Amino acid sequence: MDNFEINNVMPNARVQNYLRRQDAKFGLLLSSSFDEDGHFVENIPDESVDVEKVVQTEMMIDALNSALEKLTKKERDLIERICYRDESLRYLAKLKNISHQAMVKRKNKILEKLREFLSDF
After folding, report:
1. What b/e readout covers 20-56, taking b as 16+ CB neighbours within 10 angstroms?
2. Predicted confidence (pLDDT) per residue in 68-96, tens digit
3. In a domain, 7, yes or no
4. Is this model's pTM higher than 0.90 or not?
């Protein structure tokens, strides 16, 4: 099995950790405030939260997840390693025995595919 393949979906704990960091960074509701179906766990009104922004963010996350599912396993794994695990392109190039520039081209090609998938959003 190739080092760049994953089991279909990123482990939930890693994704949740990433989402918590992003929520804190952008001042959004914590992703942990939602149950598995995307419903609020607590119904305490918070007037400091921009509900429109939260809904828009959820829609963007759904669109991104849908776009990621359209990638091959190798492509998804590469994006996971770069974006969620913060692994450097140099490190990944060395693992794959290719040049850094070749890895940059792969990443850019995958990101362009994602842009195309998300162009309707």
Report:
1. eeebeeeebbebebeeeeeeeeeeeeeeeeeeeebee
2. 999 999 999 999 999 989 999 999 999 99
3. no
4. no
